[in-house]
Structures are given as structure tokens and as C-alpha cells.
């Protein structure tokens, strides 16, 4: 089983030709609301990829909370650990321009109330094979979850995004860290990728650095590095590529797929996701991943 502790939000996405400068008003082309948040994205990606998945998090009692919960449930995610709290659901206000560039304002709202120590949270984490963490929920919740995981033999997979300093209390309990290239460089403070990987492996036993259309790099202490290319596809929206990758990777590792096969499987899931708009709306079902991997 996979447990995801993290954010569940509503993405409010506006598509414009050119994003407005400060003080400017422009006409938009289209507006969409799609459930998102890094935690929910990883949970949905893992469930669609065939994993047995439970979510620990919080939504508000506003009009966004129910659709976010429903999308998770309809994807097959166990939402018993997703609390409904008074006040608004977390939101991400996203402006996407014609070049595919985006700017995003994240308002945590209900996600700020996540503790990782609510009734049932520890039992869920202890019973899981993997705990997936990202950093849109409070750091204290991630630390609490990781400690329970470590004490119970649950492997911790951390997506260190949004980038911030990582306390030892968290890092010391992480088994696999999965940053994208920018996050990896920001964490290490060095530009060189080899040095960045050295920095990561000094702190965490396994690092998987995703490199966008360049694929991904797997590095483990004392092992040869493995580079897996991305699938050649035409990307229309790379939102949640990384989250789809992590969700599918956890499923593959949980099925004891060998490393290269697991990375290929995760890359296939992400390649399918970047060909469709939105976050949760873009994530593939298991059969689609299998078809792409089979070629
Ligand atoms: P993030 O979404 O966190 O920024 P990346 O951009 O590194 O992460 O993408 C994660 C993974 O998604 C990559 O390792 C790759 O497998 C896949 N991916 C991303 N962009 C593309 C693309 N344009 N074509 C094919 N695969 C892609």
C-alpha cells in the first residue's frame, strides 16, 4: 500500500495570450478548475497506475472541498484520512500563457492544518510500503509522518518541492529523494549535476533526479548511476509531470520491478500526462502505461 501525506487543492487555471504585468488587466481565453495539489496529484497518479493508495490531508468545507475529495475517491484513492476542516480548501491560482509559461500563487488554506498526527494517521503510515511526501503541507507534518514511517519500516519518498531548506529531522528519515533538476540544484547550492548528486547521496541513500524531456537519472550509494531517457512525445502541458512520475514510480517499486523497468514505467506515465492539459485530469490509467511501455 502507498500512503500520500500532503496537499489537496483546487487548481484555478486561466489561459491567456500574454500574462498581465503588475497593474495591467488582460482578457483571458479560458478558465478551468481542476483538482490538484502535489499530494493529491501523486495519490491520483499512483491509484490510476494500479496502486492501492490512501491519502492523508485536509480540504475545506467550501465549494471546492467536495470536488477535490470526489476526484480522489473516483480515482480509487482511500480518502478516510482526508479531513474536512472549517474554512477554504487550498488553491493554486495559475496563469498559463501561449508560450506554455506559467506563474502560480499557492494559498495553503486547509493544507496548513495538516499535522500527520490525526487519529488513524500513524496506523495508515505504519501499514504502508511507501509514504510519499512533498512540501506543500507543513514541514512539521512531513517530519512527523517520516518518523512514523522509519519506525515501522515504511519507505519514505520525498519530492522536495516547493524548494526549501530540508531539516535533518526530515532528511535522516528519507529513503528516496526525487527532485527535478532545478530543485536538486537549489538544494545543493551547486550548479554541476554530478556534484549535486554527490550532495544528495551524502544525505539520502537513493536520489532520482528528473530532467524533463531529458529523462531521469537514478543514483544510489555504491551503485552505478542509471540514466533513463524520456519518451519522445509532444508536450502540451507539463503540469504535474513530476508528480505523475513519482506516483507511478512508487507503484512500480512496490511491485518489485527492477530499477530500470520501474524508471521506464514512471517515465511512461509522465509522458502520457504531459500530452494532456491539467494536473489530475492528465494522469494515465495503468493500461495506457503498459501499452506505452510495451511500445
Ligand atoms: P517536474 O514536473 O517536477 O518539473 P520534470 O519536468 O523533470 O519534473 O518531469 C518529470 C518527468 O516527466 C521526466 O523525468 C520525464 O520522464 C517526464 N517528462 C517531462 N517533460 C516531458 C516531455 N516534454 N516529454 C516526455 N516526457 C517528459
TrEMBL record:
<feature type="binding site">
    <location>
        <begin position="242"/>
        <end position="243"/>
    </location>
    <ligand>
        <name>ATP</name>
    </ligand>
</feature>
<keyword id="KW-0479">Metal-binding</keyword>
<feature type="binding site">
    <location>
        <position position="282"/>
    </location>
    <ligand>
        <name>K(+)</name>
    </ligand>
</feature>
<comment type="pathway">
    <text>Carbohydrate metabolism; D-ribose degradation; D-ribose 5-phosphate from beta-D-ribopyranose: step 2/2.</text>
</comment>
<dbReference type="GO" id="GO:0019303">
    <property type="term" value="P:D-ribose catabolic process"/>
</dbReference>
<dbReference type="GO" id="GO:0004747">
    <property type="term" value="F:ribokinase activity"/>
</dbReference>
<feature type="binding site">
    <location>
        <position position="180"/>
    </location>
    <ligand>
        <name>ATP</name>
    </ligand>
</feature>
<dbReference type="InterPro" id="IPR029056">
    <property type="entry name" value="Ribokinase-like"/>
</dbReference>
<feature type="binding site">
    <location>
        <position position="273"/>
    </location>
    <ligand>
        <name>K(+)</name>
    </ligand>
</feature>
<feature type="binding site">
    <location>
        <position position="243"/>
    </location>
    <ligand>
        <name>substrate</name>
    </ligand>
</feature>
<protein>
    <recommendedName>
        <fullName>Ribokinase</fullName>
        <ecNumber>2.7.1.15</ecNumber>
    </recommendedName>
</protein>
<dbReference type="InterPro" id="IPR011611">
    <property type="entry name" value="PfkB_dom"/>
</dbReference>
<comment type="similarity">
    <text>Belongs to the carbohydrate kinase pfkB family.</text>
</comment>
<feature type="binding site">
    <location>
        <position position="278"/>
    </location>
    <ligand>
        <name>K(+)</name>
    </ligand>
</feature>
<keyword id="KW-0547">Nucleotide-binding</keyword>
<keyword id="KW-0418">Kinase</keyword>
<keyword id="KW-0808">Transferase</keyword>
<dbReference type="GO" id="GO:0005829">
    <property type="term" value="C:cytosol"/>
</dbReference>
<feature type="binding site">
    <location>
        <position position="276"/>
    </location>
    <ligand>
        <name>K(+)</name>
    </ligand>
</feature>
<feature type="binding site">
    <location>
        <begin position="210"/>
        <end position="215"/>
    </location>
    <ligand>
        <name>ATP</name>
    </ligand>
</feature>
<comment type="function">
    <text>Catalyzes the phosphorylation of ribose at O-5 in a reaction requiring ATP and magnesium. The resulting D-ribose-5-phosphate can then be used either for sythesis of nucleotides, histidine, and tryptophan, or as a component of the pentose phosphate pathway.</text>
</comment>
<dbReference type="InterPro" id="IPR002173">
    <property type="entry name" value="Carboh/pur_kinase_PfkB_CS"/>
</dbReference>
<dbReference type="Pfam" id="PF00294">
    <property type="entry name" value="PfkB"/>
</dbReference>
<feature type="binding site">
    <location>
        <position position="239"/>
    </location>
    <ligand>
        <name>K(+)</name>
    </ligand>
</feature>
<keyword id="KW-0067">ATP-binding</keyword>
<feature type="binding site">
    <location>
        <position position="237"/>
    </location>
    <ligand>
        <name>K(+)</name>
    </ligand>
</feature>
<comment type="subunit">
    <text>Homodimer.</text>
</comment>
<dbReference type="GO" id="GO:0046872">
    <property type="term" value="F:metal ion binding"/>
</dbReference>
<dbReference type="GO" id="GO:0005524">
    <property type="term" value="F:ATP binding"/>
</dbReference>
<feature type="binding site">
    <location>
        <position position="136"/>
    </location>
    <ligand>
        <name>substrate</name>
    </ligand>
</feature>
<dbReference type="InterPro" id="IPR002139">
    <property type="entry name" value="Ribo/fructo_kinase"/>
</dbReference>
<dbReference type="InterPro" id="IPR011877">
    <property type="entry name" value="Ribokinase"/>
</dbReference>
<feature type="binding site">
    <location>
        <begin position="9"/>
        <end position="11"/>
    </location>
    <ligand>
        <name>substrate</name>
    </ligand>
</feature>
<feature type="binding site">
    <location>
        <begin position="37"/>
        <end position="41"/>
    </location>
    <ligand>
        <name>substrate</name>
    </ligand>
</feature>
<feature type="domain" description="Carbohydrate kinase PfkB">
    <location>
        <begin position="2"/>
        <end position="285"/>
    </location>
</feature>
<feature type="active site" description="Proton acceptor">
    <location>
        <position position="243"/>
    </location>
</feature>
<keyword id="KW-0460">Magnesium</keyword>
<comment type="similarity">
    <text>Belongs to the carbohydrate kinase PfkB family. Ribokinase subfamily.</text>
</comment>
<keyword id="KW-0963">Cytoplasm</keyword>
<keyword id="KW-0630">Potassium</keyword>
<keyword id="KW-0119">Carbohydrate metabolism</keyword>
Amino acid at each position: 500500500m502507498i500512503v500520500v501525506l500532503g496537499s489537496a487543492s483546487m487548481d484555478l487555471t486561466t489561459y491567456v495570450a500574454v500574462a498581465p504585468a503588475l497593474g495591467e488587466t488582460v482578457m483571458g481565453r479560458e478558465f478551468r478548475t481542476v483538482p490538484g495539489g502535489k499530494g493529491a496529484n501523486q495519490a491520483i497518479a499512483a491509484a490510476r497506475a494500479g496502486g492501492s493508495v490512501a491519502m492523508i490531508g485536509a480540504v475545506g468545507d467550501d465549494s471546492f472541498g467536495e470536488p477535490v475529495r470526489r476526484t480522489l475517491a473516483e480515482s480509487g484513492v482511500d480518502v478516510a484520512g482526508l479531513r474536512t476542516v472549517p474554512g477554504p480548501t487550498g488553491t493554486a491560482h495559475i496563469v498559463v500563457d501561449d508560450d506554455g509559461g506559467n506563474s502560480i500563487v499557492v494559498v495553503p488554506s486547509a493544507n496548513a492544518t495538516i499535522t500527520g498526527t490525526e487519529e488513524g494517521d500513524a496506523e495508515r503510515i505504519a501499514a504502508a510500503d511507501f509514504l510519499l511526501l512533498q512540501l506543500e503541507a507543513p514541514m512539521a507534518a512531513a517530519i512527523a509522518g517520516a518518523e512514523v514511517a522509519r519506525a515501522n519500516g515504511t519507505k519514505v519518498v520525498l519530492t522536495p518541492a516547493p524548494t526549501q531548506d530540508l531539516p535533518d529531522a526530515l532528511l535522516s528519515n528519507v529513503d528516496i529523494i526525487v527532485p527535478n533538476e532545478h530543485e536538486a540544484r537549489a538544494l545543493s547550492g551547486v550548479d554541476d549535476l554530478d556534484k549535486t548528486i554527490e550532495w544528495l547521496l551524502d544525505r539520502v541513500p537513493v536520489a532520482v533526479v528528473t530532467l524533463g524531456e531529458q529523462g531521469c537519472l537514478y543514483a544510489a550509494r555504491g551503485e552505478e548511476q542509471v540514466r533513463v531517457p524520456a519518451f519522445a512525445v509532444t508536450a502540451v502541458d507539463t503540469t504535474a509531470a513530476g508528480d505523475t512520475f513519482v506516483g507511478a514510480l512508487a507503484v512500480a517499486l512496490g511491485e518489485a520491478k527492477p530499477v530500470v523497468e520501474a524508471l521506464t514505467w514512471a517515465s511512461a506515465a509522465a509522458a502520457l500526462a504531459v500530452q494532456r492539459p491539467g494536473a489530475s485530469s492528465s494522469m494515465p490509467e495503468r493500461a495506457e502505461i503498459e501499452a506505452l511501455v510495451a511500445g
